[in-house]
Write a structure and sequence with these properties.
Elements: E1 6-7, E2 14-22, E3 25-29, E4 35-39, H1 43-54, E5 58-62, E6 73-75, E7 78-82, H2 87-106, H3 117-137, E8 138-147, H4 154-161, E9 166-170, H5 178-181, H6 187-194, E10 199-202, H7 206-219, E11 222-224, E12 227-229, E13 237-240, H8 247-254, H9 257-269, E14 275-282, H10 289-301, E15 310-317, H11 324-344, E16 352-355, H12 361-370, E17 373-376, H13 386-393, E18 400-404, E19 417-419, H14 424-436, H15 439-455, H16 458-475
Helix pairs in contact: 2-3, 3-4, 6-7, 8-12, 8-13, 9-12, 10-11, 10-14, 12-13
This protein binds GDP-alpha-D-glucose (GDG).
The site of GDP-alpha-D-glucose has 21 residues, from strand 14, strand 15, helix 12 and helix 13.
Length: 476
């Protein structure tokens, strides 16, 4: 591939290895028509870049294309060690077990999790492959940090292959209670897989509590406080590390001239409404889009919101379009929005602007900076970064955040307008309360939210996790 890539450095072994389902790069076509790699935008990539640079780190992950055999290479500050996935692996391990078994099961079962033995076998096989690649690129006594629900067996396989390594694991989505998790036919295997790590991190305190209970119940192991006692003498720790965003980066983006221009045009195109309500989500059934749109439909139909002056903009970025539940959800949403707009709209002014599309980060920051009310109402969410990005972009301390109690972020963002998204009337009245609050009231809340987010940004999250992991390494 024609690119600035160079083969991986020296011995190809790194003292720091990150393992995630996807590599932090996407393939793009440049002006000359060549295929090149571009670093993907995103909080995790931004946060880990300095760590990767400082430790000459290697990132293990899938390139995003099926059946592609790629040798390790270097792009910008990242050494990349690709893991090959066949079309069948993608269907069974990724779309199947990861996104149609684990994803719904770990999100309160808001959609039915499907259990298929061949999906599990593929998950097991692919996890082993990721572990083998990590083992191949990790230097003696290296630190390896494994990310997320697609790779829960990697810590154990990696430990078997390389007992010298220090292994951390972080789960980005909720970890479910016993009552749900125990449905999983392979529940003990997953718990054992995770216990290969020295440190297991979750988004909220419910994670460690649920996990430790399962360890006692299914593996009959002793636990005390945040520690598991394993028969081989190892003592893995289980703790909470709420993830965050590059708060200053978002604030800078939102105040840039380009974002201000974009925001101005955006408002003009909307007809400069009195109030903008905004939702930004991946199109996912966990994000509560149906409940949210229904609430807005009722508010417009009842005249509580006025289509001449109020608009609800919903950005739904395309996601997992090969998974059946997601196709169904998209149809349902489009039917609902069409009905509401048909019933309520005036010519040229639909009350709900539904955008099934992805936008550049600059556009997102611009939209956040002009949204009077940000509506983040997932049915269950590990953390939710969108609400934190909104707060970071409110450099003038205005705006109101309506936030679901079931987002991990609600544990920290107590000054948001908290709602139960299943309680339609409660959600409607809170939306109106947030929209009609005095400027003073909104500023008081926003100031507190901003303090929290700027003091607990993504760098602090990564530093805290890696410092704890290094301590356990010393203690070993
Ligand atoms: C998982 C967990 C946890 C969305 N649309 C566009 C776009 N985005 C960006 C947002 C935000 C990110 O995607 C979404 O992050 P969330 O946290 O809201 O949700 P998940 O994707 O479900 O993430 C979640 C997270 O992992 C981290 O641990 O918080 O609970 O489910 O950054 O801005 N970005 C751009 N265009 C879009 O159209 N550029």
């Amino acid at each position: 591939m024609a690119d600035s890539n160079s083969p991986i450095a020296d011995s190809g072994r790194s003292p720091f290895v990150l393992v995630a389902n996807r590599l932090p790069v996407d393939r793009k076509v440049d002006d000359q028509g060549n295929q090149v790699w571009r670093t993907s935008p995103g909080g995790l990539v931004t946060a880990l870049e300095p760590v990767m640079r400082q430790h000459d780190g290697t990132w293990v992950g899938w390139s995003g294309s099926p059946d592609e055999e790629l040798a390790p290479f270097t792009h910008e500050h990242f050494h990349l060690a690709p893991v090959k996935l066949s079309a069948a692996d993608i269907e069974l391990y990724y779309e199947g077990f990861s996104n149609a078994t684990l994803w719904p099961l770990y999100h309160d079962g808001v959609a039915f999790p499907q259990f298929h033995r061949d999906w599990w076998q593929a998950y097991d096989r692919v996890n082993r492959r990721f572990a083998e690649q990590a083992a191949a690129v990790a230097a003696e006594d290296a630190v390896v940090w494994v990310q997320d629900y697609q790779l829960q067996l990697v810590p154990q396989y990696l430990r078997e292959l390389r007992p010298d390594l220090t292994i951390g694991f972080f789960l980005h989505i909720p970890f479910p209670p016993d009552e749900l998790f125990s449905q999983l036919p392979w529940r003990s295997e997953i718990i054992r897989g995770l216990l290969g790590a020295d440190l297991i991190g979750f988004q909220t305190p419910a994670g460690p509590a649920n996990f430790l209970r399962l360890v006692r119940r299914h593996l009959h192991l002793r636990t005390r406080s945040d520690t598991v006692f394993l028969p081989d003498g190892r003592l893995p720790k289980v703790r909470t590390y709420p993830i965050s965003i590059d708060a200053q980066g978002f604030a800078d983006l939102a105040t840039s001239d380009e974002a201000r221009d974009y925001a101005k045009k955006f408002c003009e195109e909307l007809g400069n409404p009195r109030r903008i309500f905004l939702g930004v989500d991946r199109l996912d059934y966990t994000k509560g889009l149906i409940h949210r749109i229904r609430a807005f439909g009722e508010l417009f139909e009842a005249g509580d919101l006025d289509p001449d002056h109020d608009v609800f903009v919903q950005v739904a970025s395309p996601s997992r379009e090969n998974v059946a539940e997601y196709v169904k959800l998209r149809d349902e949403i489009e039917l609902m929005v069409g009905r509401i707009n048909g019933d309520v709209s005036r010519i040229g002014r639909p009350p709900i602007l539904y955008l099934h599309s992805s936008y550049p980060r600059l556009a997102m920051a611009a939209m956040y900076s002009v949204a009077d009310v940000m509506v983040v109402t997932p049915l269950r969410d590990g953390m939710n970064l969108v609400c934190k990005e909104y707060v970071a972009c409110r450099t003038d301390q205005t705006g109101a955040l309506v936030l679901s109690e079931f987002a991990g972020a609600a544990e920290e963002l107590r000054q948001a307008y908290l709602v139960n998204p299943y309680d339609l009337n409660g959600m409607k009245s809170t939306l109106l309360r947030a929209a009609n609050a005095s400027r003073r009231e909104k500023q008081r809340r926003m100031r507190a939210l901003r303090k929290q987010i700027f003091e607990h940004d993504i760098n602090r999250w990564a530093d805290t996790f890696l410092t704890d992991l290094a301590q356990f390494r010393e203690a070993r």
